[in-house]
Write a structure and sequence with these properties.
about 35% helix, 18 helices, binds iron/sulfur cluster, alpha/beta, about 450 residues, 5-stranded parallel beta sheet, single chain
């Protein structure tokens, strides 16, 4: 039987996908936590933020009821500070570094406080930045994800006219299309993009794919510089027999589908296997469960010690009732009338460390079988190799290589996932800032 959609009632969908980290109930609650901050000198929380937000300063501003000032402090370092307050793995960044951890006390809820002020800024449409007068230069940015938007905002503040070419019908990149809906909703992402471009001087042209609707040569001829923030690429295939069967989907497509088309329209199996253990795998597994799958099993080829997701993300999957099988790799998918019925897995053991420094999985020769009707592939993404080769941009297996944010093609800069292979949203925001600084130096030597 084909996997089905619309498994739950509307109320069940809204319960299952409600905000996982709700905001403060009221101002007093926010002030209580803000007043716990020790306003550390040389604050470790700021040092752990890839965008170096001055955290003690914005918390101090909240405690003195200067919410506008606090939002400015956040946005001047991270224009996606509102979204990052919902999706950053803060347990391994700012909150993980908070000195309260050393005292074995709860760290300051930095993300919640950041959300407290940035959401007020967005809701009230506070205009916190002025654009300098136009300096007569135009820059094209490819990709309206975190790197592209952050680059665009810095350039616009400096009086540069920016046009962003985005392949999707909406901006925000993976923030809009690739993150679990209980962390951040598509509506919030749309508001965030609109808030960022409300500074003026930034036009987004949607449904424009590089290499199809617009070429790099056209952009080079029409603009003074080009910034590529094209993201990491397409889903990695498993390369195992049966992968083409109905019921096998990739995690990014699955998450995209439920964010773009709504929960009831997304087909989900009763017994789902998710391959991988990164954040995307966790988001796919938990959302499959919340869409009504009876049984979801995460399959990972290494052990818990090598997992790429954080402990907090793993706990979300466990709390949602997802099962986890460590040291197992997919070997084949079997089915009936082209519909998935089984996933055959190889039992693995750990061998010598590989290039990533983690011990590599080695096949023991033994297998086991899972009865499933859906397989979600979340085994990473492959960079846009053909695209970057086509434009003779120096790259390493499809990842663009840069020198001070400049690619090997004159006047073309790059940053974010297409360079680093896929990191956090906050890393892409910093990459966009770095790219803008390099472009400004290039335009005004
Ligand atoms: Fe405040 Fe913790 Fe940062 Fe110190 S480390 S400034 S206590 S949030």
């Amino acid at each position: 039987m084909a996997i089905s959609n619309n498994k739950l009632t509307n109320d069940q969908y809204s319960d299952n996908f409600s905000d996982i980290h709700p905001p403060f109930e009221n101002k007093t609650a926010a002030l209580v936590d803000a007043n716990r901050c020790l306003f550390c000198y040389d604050a470790p929380c700021t040092k752990s933020c890839p965008t170096s937000i001055n955290i003690p300063k914005f918390i101090k501003q909240i405690s003195s009821d200067n919410i506008k000032g606090s939002a400015h402090t956040i946005f001047v370092s991270n224009i996606m500070g509102a979204g990052c307050s919902k999706v950053c793995p803060v347990e391994k960044l700012c909150e993980g570094a908070c000195v309260y951890n050393l005292l074995e006390e709860e760290p300051i809820p930095i993300a919640k406080l950041q959300r407290y002020s940035t959401e007020q800024a967005m809701e009230n449409k506070w205009k916190l930045f002025d654009r300098k007068p136009s300096r007569g230069k135009k820059v094209a940015i490819v990709g309206a994800g975190p790197a592209g938007l952050s680059c665009a905002h810095v350039l616009s503040r400096e009086g540069i006219d920016v046009t962003i070419y985005e392949k999707e019908p909406k901006g925000g990149g993976l923030m809009t299309y690739g993150i679990a809906a209980y962390k951040v909703t598509p509506e919030f992402c749309e508001d965030e993009v609109n808030y960022i471009i409300s500074i003026g001087g930034i036009e987004i042209k949607y449904n424009q794919t590089l290499g199809k609707d617009v070429s790099l040569e056209q952009l080079q001829n029409s603009y003074d510089a080009v910034y590529l923030g094209i993201g990491v690429g397409v889903a990695r295939q498993l390369d195992i027999p049966g992968e083409e069967m109905e019921g096998v989907v990739d995690a990014i497509g699955f998450i995209y589908n439920l964010r773009a088309n709504g929960f009831p329209s997304v087909p989900v199996g009763d017994k789902v296997a998710v391959i991988g253990m990164g954040m995307t795998a966790i988001d796919a597994a938990t959302q499959a469960k919340r869409l009504g799958a009876k049984e979801v099993t995460l399959v990972y080829r290494r052990t818990e010690a090598e997992k790429p997701c954080t402990d907090v993300e793993l706990d979300i999957a466990k709390l949602d009732g997802c099962k986890i099988i460590w040291l197992a790799a997919p070997a084949a998918i079997k089915g009936n009338e082209n519909k998935v019925t089984q996933l055959i897995c190889s039992k693995m053991k750990l061998g010598e460390p590989d290039a990533s420094g983690r011990r590599s999985p080695v096949d023991t020769g033994e297998t086991f079988t899972l009865d499933v009707d859906m397989v979600i592939k979340a085994a990473g993404q492959v960079p846009f190799m053909e695209l970057v080769d086509q434009y003779r941009i120096n790259n390493k297996n499809g990842r663009i290589t840069i020198d001070n944010n400049a690619t090997s093609v004159k006047g073309v800069f790059a940053g974010g996932d297409c360079v680093n292979g896929g990191k956090e949203v906050v890393d892409a925001v910093q990459a966009g800032k770095d790219g803008a600084a390099a472009i400004l130096k290039y335009l005004f030597p």
